[in-house]
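PROTEIN DESIGN WORKSHEET
SECTION A - STRUCTURE
LENGTH: 279
TOKENS:
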């Protein structure tokens, strides 16, 4: 039996990926990454391996439902295509909806060799994503799946009077991101609204307390409304997560989805892309 995951190391490896922060450092090997995390190579590989197995098991559980497996077969991604996910920690997370999607396609359609690139970076705002968009579209994806907005909605300090980015700036960023992508690629675009939060759990989190960080559902729902008004297909997670977010879908920090929450997101995404009900 494998030893239980060290929760601090597991969270670090799950959510923070230094090789993504510098474009020229994308090919750091496991030994260097282990050193950056402050652990030896064996421990790093053990922790990461357990995380990867957990997300693969989530995909296997979803594929046990014949109707869902059929939907994966019917996803409009063609053999050899490139699918890029753009986002923040809800995408960067090694347990994320996009990593589950990766395993779903590898398990159900291995012959198609669909290339999935995770361009989520934990902590990114829409401004930072706009700033690095040229490097993303240079990969000439066939599909771009975009979930952003949670970090834009961050509030800092006691009794904060504003979100990190104003709603006006967020709206401009969303439209500019879409404009640049349309001008530089022929990719089909899909928006995914950022999920709602559990504000009480966020307020009780000691790390958020230390940094005086907070998030409000009213802010993220306003961002969701901007996204819902975009002309492209939209997968709306907010109705499914609820307000506050359902306990089974949101983690103990009140901000990040659980693996069950990510499984729900990928189900809604697959439904939407195969002609089911969009959320």
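SECTION B - SEQUENCE
RESIDUE ASSIGNMENT:
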């Amino acid at each position: 039996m494998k030893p239980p995951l060290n929760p601090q190391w597991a969270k670090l490896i799950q959510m923070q990926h230094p090789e993504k922060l510098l474009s020229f450092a994308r090919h750091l090997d496991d030994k260097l990454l282990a050193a950056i995390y402050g652990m030896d190579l064996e421990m790093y590989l053990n922790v990461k391996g357990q995380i990867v197995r957990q997300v693969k098991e989530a995909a296997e559980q979803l594929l046990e439902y014949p109707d869902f497996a059929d939907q994966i077969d019917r996803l409009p991604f063609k053999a050899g295509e490139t699918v890029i996910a753009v986002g923040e920690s809800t995408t960067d997370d090694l347990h994320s909806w996009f990593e589950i999607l990766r395993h779903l396609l590898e398990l159900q359609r291995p012959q198609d060799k669909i290339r999935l690139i995770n361009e989520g970076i934990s902590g990114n705002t829409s401004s930072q994503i706009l700033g690095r968009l040229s490097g993303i579209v240079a990969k000439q994806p066939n599909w771009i799946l975009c979930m952003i907005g949670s970090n834009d909605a961050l509030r800092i300090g006691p009794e904060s009077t504003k979100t990190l980015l104003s709603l006006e700036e967020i709206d401009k960023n969303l439209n500019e991101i879409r404009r640049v992508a349309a001008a530089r690629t022929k990719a089909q675009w899909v928006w995914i609204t950022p999920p709602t939060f559990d504000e009480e759990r966020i307020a009780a989190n000691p790390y958020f307390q230390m940094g005086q960080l907070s998030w409000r559902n009213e802010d993220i729902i306003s961002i969701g409304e901007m996204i819902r008004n975009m002309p492209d297909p939209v997968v709306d997670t907010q109705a499914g997560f609820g307000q506050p977010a359902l306990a089974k879908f949101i983690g103990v920090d009140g901000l990040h989805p659980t693996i069950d929450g990510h499984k729900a997101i990928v189900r809604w995404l697959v439904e939407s892309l195969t002609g089911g009900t969009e959320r």
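SECTION C - NOTES
The beta strands are 82-87, 115-120, 143-147, 155-156, 188-192, 213-214, 234-235.
The first strand starts at residue 82 and ends at 87.
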